[in-house]
Amino acid sequence: MKSTLRSLIEQIAGFMPWIPDWVFAIAAFIGIVAAGLALQSLINRIIKRRPADWRPFLRHAWRRTRRLVRFMLVLFALSVILPLLHPPHDLRDEIRRIFLALAVVQLGWIIGVIANLAMDHYTFGLKIDASDNLGARRAATQMRILRQALNVMIGTLTVGFALMSFDSVRQFGISLFASAGLAGIVAGLAARPLFENLIAGLQLAFTQPLRLGDAVVINNEFGTVEEIGSVYVVIRLWDLRRQIVPLSYLFTNPFVNWTRSSSSIVGSVMFFFDYTMDIDALRAEAERVVKQSGLWDGQVLKVQVIDTTETSMKVRVLVSAPNAGVSSDLGALLREQLIAYVRDRHPTSLPRTRQEPIVFPGRNTAAGDTARPS
């Protein structure tokens, strides 16, 4: 198309030899740019006449890439009129290489914008805040990791093709890879952790041992997966600290994922009561509290005596909730309500230490004597 347009311009210039070439080149540049802008304006009018819900992705992609297309239009017009200015041969080749490199960069930029918009359009409808959000979190995790990998790949290919338009840079790169074998080995060893984490990120996107929003225990720290980067994972701990974990660590060390197969989570609340505590009454009160709370998902509720000591018994209440945040709130509510219930209804069942006096034969403790061993 470019050669056809250039030939047409040269034929028109041949019919008007009295016009200087630089004037004709400027006029041709203005004409090409004006024609391109007119075509853009026509496309804008066609899109605006469509209903508001017509092709939202195409509408958004066109809106985000209009300025980039205009820049490519300017590059195209400059490359067409360049022969009309009759620059020196060497200078013309250098300018063409610059134009080609800029066009490659712009094309890569446009492809990157459209690819990111496509992934945003896919993840926009995912309901991460829903109670059963397992599928949504799986898709969001895959898209986030694939987005990072795709952006790195597009950027690398764009820069590589742009540099290949210059012979000097291309030859320098070939000679560098051919002669610097030792430096390449050293660089490869130094970059090994980076590549390990990048490959681990791709493995994580497809195998998904954890996802965004999962409740996990890593390094004996309980938290929620807040962010998955290209080389690391950010875990938001219960006290709002952030634990940064390399992706390669996840495939070489065991960890606990509480929400691997479901977004529901089972929380536990521990109590210590005296042996006189009525467990059936406590179980009924716990059932009443969780049912009235509106936080229980109706799946798991158990009140069990799991251990005993010489002074008290250890009671565990297991209760399920839709997610980790709700489980924490429900556990706190159970502690408050059950402690208040035992304090008000069964005060003698609170943990206590018994001390009984030692009565020796022949001593009158009622008279106020203190029982002491002799």
Provide keyphrases for this structure.
single chain; alpha+beta; Alpha-Beta Plaits; 5-stranded antiparallel β-sheet; 3-stranded antiparallel β-sheet; 11 helices; 57% helix; disordered C terminus
The major β-sheet equals: 5 strands, antiparallel
Would you tell me the overall average pLDDT? 76
Rg calc:
37 Å
Q: Based on Cα principal axes, name the global outline.
A: elongated
**Helical content, roughly?**
55-70%
List the helices and strands in order.
HHHHHHHHEEEEHEEHEEH
Biggest β-sheet: strands ordered side by side in the sheet? 4-3-2-1-5
Which structural class fits the helix and strand makeup? alpha+beta
Q: How many helix segments?
A: 11
Beta-strand percent range? 5-15%
Name the poorly predicted regions.
Answer: 172-191, 365-374
Give the N-terminus to C-terminus distance in angstroms. Answer: 117 Å
Number of DSSP E strands? 8
Write the layout of secondary structure elements.
Elements: H1 2-15, H2 21-49, H3 56-81, H4 89-124, H5 134-163, H6 167-179, H7 181-190, H8 192-207, E1 215-218, E2 221-228, E3 232-237, E4 242-246, H9 247-250, E5 256-257, E6 265-273, H10 279-293, E7 301-308, E8 313-321, H11 324-345
Antiparallel strand pairs: 1-2, 1-5, 2-3, 3-4, 6-8, 7-8
Helix pairs in contact: 1-3, 2-3, 3-4, 4-5, 5-8, 10-11
